[in-house]
Structure formats: structure tokens, C-alpha cells
């Protein structure tokens, strides 16, 4: 039976690229929304989901952070994808024929220098691969798309210019989700743990809750706050740390965290992936 990995977007999206690079043995399953990708795992239509959580240029993917706690899924791995942006057009098109480029607003914002230099108008599309699909269905060489090389390959478009992003280190981090947790130690680069917690309503609760990680020498790589129950008082937090829950120093830190929180939920334990080096 073919194993599937669900992702949000059209075939050729950067999430699809992440699936191909990190899970080449899995068949990619395109889904319209993040909720659909999560539901595909719940229903058993796919074994894993590839979900973007943050980008080095634009920060966190807010929808995902709000969906993860209630998803019932578990983080079992992570992956990083260098977001190389390409100008794609109908076969036979030359660069000087292109007058507009369609893509997700984030990609349009990442190619301002190139687009301005060539006098190309920016048109906001629903997503990157969807924009490439749209261009492939038109018959106007003046219109192009900004997307991955994979999208160009899938939709039969020519690559007029490669890697035109303003920041060459633009990278997206993905979490690989499963129905069942995997708490085993694996990989060669150390382990990471992700959890959410809600602090107690006492003075300096967050400061006190974080003290155990500092005193036990644990590197906290991410800490973000969220509004809970429609309140403007942020009491729920999402955190990534280096280490495994069975490590003695992590145990001590989590014990101290427990004292200052109302709740703590472990979202996953997984091997740390290697972050791509900056382009030279």
C-alpha cells in the first residue's frame, strides 16, 4: 500500500517540494487547506502531514500554530526548505515579453528588486503553485508566475530567471505530523521537544516558569504567546527546546514549569533537522 503525506496547496507548492525532499518514499497528497491536510491524517487517508510553521523572512505561519494544539496530531520530524523563487512563463516566452507576475503576496514581496528592474507588475494570487497552474492555462506570454522549479516542471512552464529572491537565505521550516507520537531517540543531530503551556495567574509567572530552563542549561529556540478564549491577556505559550523529555535536565526544567502553569501539553519529540547554509 502506498504511503501518503498530505500538504496544503497545489502540486508544485513549496510544501510539495518539502515532501519530495524529506519524504521521497511517500506519495504527496495535495489539500485545499491546512484543516483538510490535518483531517486527511485523522481519517487515515494519509500517514503524515507536512505543515509549514515559520519562514526566516516572514516569521510564523499563524494558522498552523492555532491548529496544532487541537489537531490531535503529533510532531515526529521537521524539515527545512530553501525557498528559491523563479520566474515561470509559457514555453517560448522571452523575459522582455513579460509585463506581469502573479504569485502569493509573500513571494511578490521577496522579489521587489528583480521585478522593479524589469518593469514587471506584481499581481497577487492565491498561492505559488496555483499561480503557475493559472499561467499554464492562459495564452498570453505577457503573464508569468513566481514559483518553484518543481511547479514549472509540473505545469510545463519555462524558467526565465532562477533564484530571483532578494534574500538568498529565505528558508521555511516544516513540521511533519503523525496520528501517533514517536518518543524514541533517533537521528544524528540531537533531539527537540515542542510543547504548549498556560501560565498561572500570578505575578511574573512566565519569568518564573522559564527559570528552570535557564538554570538547567536548556536552549529554548522558540517561545511565542497566544490569546486564549478571546482575551487580550496572552497566557498560552508555544515553545521549542533542544533536548528529550527523558534527559535529566529537561525533566527538572519541566517539573519546575509544571509548578507555575495550569497545563502543559507535549506536541512532539523529534530529531533536529539541519538548517540549510546561506547561499554564497
Automatic annotation (TrEMBL):
GO MF: prephenate dehydratase activity
Single GO BP term: L-phenylalanine biosynthetic process
Gene Ontology CC annotation, any one: cytoplasm
Entry's EC annotation: 4.2.1.51
Domain ACT: 194-271
The keyword Hydrolase belongs to this UniProt entry's keyword annotation: no
Catalyzed reactions per annotation: prephenate + H(+) = 3-phenylpyruvate + CO2 + H2O
Signal peptide: none
Keywords: Amino-acid biosynthesis, Aromatic amino acid biosynthesis, Lyase, Phenylalanine biosynthesis
Prephenate dehydratase domain location: 4-179
Record-annotated site: Essential for prephenate dehydratase activity: 172
Pathway(s) served: Amino-acid biosynthesis; L-phenylalanine biosynthesis; phenylpyruvate from prephenate: step 1/1
A Pfam family the protein falls into: PDT
Family annotation (InterPro entries): ACT-like_dom_sf, ACT_dom, Chor_mutase/pphenate_deHydtase, Preph_deHydtase, Preph_deHydtase_CS
Name of the protein in its database record: prephenate dehydratase
Amino acid at each position: 500500500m502506498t504511503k501518503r503525506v498530505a500538504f496544503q496547496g497545489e502540486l508544485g507548492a513549496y510544501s510539495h517540494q518539502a515532501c519530495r525532499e524529506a519524504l521521497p518514499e511517500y506519495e504527496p497528497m495535495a489539500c485545499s487547506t491546512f484543516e483538510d491536510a490535518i483531517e486527511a491524517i485523522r481519517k487515515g487517508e494519509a500517514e503524515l502531514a507536512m505543515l509549514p510553521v515559520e519562514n526566516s523572512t516572514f516569521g510564523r505561519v499563524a494558522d498552523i500554530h492555532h491548529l496544532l494544539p487541537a489537531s490531535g496530531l503529533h510532531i515526529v520530524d521537521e524539515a527545512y526548505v530553501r525557498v528559491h523563487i523563479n520566474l515561470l512563463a509559457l514555453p517560448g516566452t522571452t523575459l522582455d515579453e513579460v509585463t506581469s507576475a502573479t504569485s502569493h503576496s509573500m513571494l511578490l514581496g521577496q522579489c521587489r528588486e528583480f521585478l522593479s528592474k524589469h518593469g514587471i507588475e506584481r499581481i497577487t494570487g492565491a498561492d505559488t503553485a496555483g499561480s503557475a497552474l493559472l499561467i499554464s492555462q492562459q495564452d498570453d506570454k505577457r503573464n508569468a508566475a513566481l514559483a518553484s522549479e518543481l511547479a514549472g516542471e509540473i505545469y510545463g512552464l519555462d524558467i526565465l530567471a532562477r533564484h530571483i529572491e532578494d534574500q538568498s537565505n529565505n528558508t521555511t521550516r516544516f513540521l511533519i505530523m503523525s496520528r501517533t507520537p514517536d518518543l524514541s531517540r533517533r537521528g544524528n543531530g540531537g533531539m527537540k521537544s515542542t510543547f504548549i503551556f498556560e501560565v498561572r495567574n500570578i505575578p511574573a509567572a512566565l519569568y518564573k516558569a522559564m527559570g528552570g530552563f535557564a538554570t538547567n542549561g536548556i536552549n529554548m529556540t522558540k517561545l511565542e504567546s497566544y490569546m486564549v478564549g478571546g482575551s487580550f491577556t496572552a497566557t498560552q505559550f508555544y515553545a521549542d527546546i533542544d533536548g528529550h523529555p527523558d534527559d535529566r535536565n529537561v525533566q527538572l526544567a519541566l517539573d519546575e514549569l509544571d509548578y507555575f502553569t495550569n497545563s502543559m501539553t507535549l506536541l512532539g519529540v523529534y530529531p533536529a533537522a539541519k538548517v540549510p547554509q546561506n547561499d554564497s
